[in-house]
Predict the 3D structure of the following.
Amino acid sequence: MQKNLTPDKKDMKLKLSDLQEKINRLETLINTSMVFSSILDLGELLNIVMTKAEEVMEAEASSVFLIDKSKKELYFITARGEKGKEAKEIRVPMGKGIVGWVAEHGRPLLVPDVTKDSRWFKGVDKKTKFVTRSIIAVPLISKGKIIGVSEVLNKKGNRNFNENDLELFEALGNQIAIAIENASLYTELDELFLSSIRAIVEAIDAKDPYTKGHSSRVVEYSLLVGEALADISKDELKQLEVSATLHDVGKIGVPDRILGKTGKLTPVEYAYMQRHSEFGSAIIEPIAKLRELIPNIMHHHERFDGKGYPDGLKGERIPLFARIICIADSFDAMTTDRPYRKKRSIQKALLELERRSGTQFDPKLTKIFIMVCKRRKLT
Amino acid sequence: MQKNLTPDKKDMKLKLSDLQEKINRLETLINTSMVFSSILDLGELLNIVMTKAEEVMEAEASSVFLIDKSKKELYFITARGEKGKEAKEIRVPMGKGIVGWVAEHGRPLLVPDVTKDSRWFKGVDKKTKFVTRSIIAVPLISKGKIIGVSEVLNKKGNRNFNENDLELFEALGNQIAIAIENASLYTELDELFLSSIRAIVEAIDAKDPYTKGHSSRVVEYSLLVGEALADISKDELKQLEVSATLHDVGKIGVPDRILGKTGKLTPVEYAYMQRHSEFGSAIIEPIAKLRELIPNIMHHHERFDGKGYPDGLKGERIPLFARIICIADSFDAMTTDRPYRKKRSIQKALLELERRSGTQFDPKLTKIFIMVCKRRKLT
């Protein structure tokens, strides 16, 4: 301490600018941690984090690897910098190279000059044509387990990374690990939600051997159309998925003897059967977060010409997702056996969709469905 | 800049120790943000955050308030320090006092000496007997909206807070807001999961007018027992809740004519009815995260004396939660009308539980259920 109080001017100058630099970088780091922790989509989040990490570390490129335990390999989840795209396809065996060493030993590593380190694995540079000079790699540890590795490459201005840089990047590594953990927890819970409603809906489908697997196929077909739409967001695709999963949940309210009847339904029975779209809407009505999906379920039996049920809505007054589910629903009904007829071939079902396009179905969406179906068969 | 390079020794001394202190506190702040962002339970999380916040800020006490929009009030979600417990019951009107001012204006506030600030609201100190000298309060802002206020009280060693402290606490405030946002997103999704399976199960119950609302009452009764158990964790209570919600989901697989039959079931029909516990287990089997709950659903009709179904398990070989659900299930059946008999009074149903304790029901759990039922009626 005494030494600090009476330094000579040159030491003092060095010390001051060092400390000031450290403060600046710590402050950037704090701001970084603010930015990223509120995003729960892992890809989006890591992209933002690593942009900031490169800024703080003054690095030319950066990557995040996760461990694929079954294959004992590391794979890129984020690869930034000039050659990031090329890098992403490469998988690194555990224990191999700097990153593999860090993943295996769970310890951070500062390599000021990669050409002087025997662990250095030239494979990635060779494939990407990136020239690595200097690396800092830190293990990502979540609940005591090594889940991956984060690295920064080449300090800008032709400098090499040093011990101070290592210390900072370790702090950042801890944040990245937590961000990954949070995003995973959220994804797991989201999976639980979807798989639970899926499982129950499948049980409803399975009551009638003729509709076994129906809802999950309607989800698949609906998403094929959804994904082909321009300007559709991830959130909207999720809404489409949940709506399609639940489109027939109202069948819980239809008596077995009507649902499973092999003969022709009487008018009264048919009227009851039609009520499944209302029943479905009523079931999800109490769920605040699903309320906006009600129109998709309520109107999946409307017709484009206005002759459908329950409300006789016409054209684009029928919600977009209900129009999509309607096509998917009908296509699945056509291509599976029914008690009163054999299934149509895919080819014939597509022709039938075309025939009813503009009357029963939205013509634009029918065109998209036919296109993606054909393309999918060809690839 | 020039000035920094040729300071006199006294300035230098001050500057160096200031910078060093700032670095130390920034480093603590970074470590703090690492600790807290991985916890998604809001109460637990804020308690850890504010412990760290007090440490970094050298404060005697700290609180976090959230805004109750409907009542235009702020309420404590965390109140730490000597008088924290007393403080928690107090609600602060919007615009009132330092905290109310910050919530209304959305700007941070440093009050070095509260006695000299006209906004100071003495009400809380009066109730808690805490003596506030100095306050820093910062707004918690999530997605552009003010969601609450965080404050630290009294810098230790009889000092007052200054501008440097304010700057640090603002950074921490941003972290707290994000932590609250993350925890809320997680809670919302969790709610969505539970309310969705609840809604579908209620629709199954409603197929038979005699079992309307059955599953949600079984959840309620099961949790009454669960909460009375020593050493039960929040996670375990959640498992009990989900298991009880889904205990009859297998009824999807039982034909309506058996489920809704008003007369006595034939032996064949009864055998079919009994299969609902297996059907339920089969429905949730594909859901990885729910797999551990299968035994609770599979065995909720076992009897303590081994004469139940499907496996004739005996005593404590029946999973704990299945034994709890069994009591809750039977109690609800006794206290609701059935096609073949009127409902029993609660009093009589409890006597009946007691009579069957040790044969049909686990005696210890029966005792707990009767106790909580009686206590609940009295309060």
Notes: The first helix of chain A runs from residue 2 to 5.
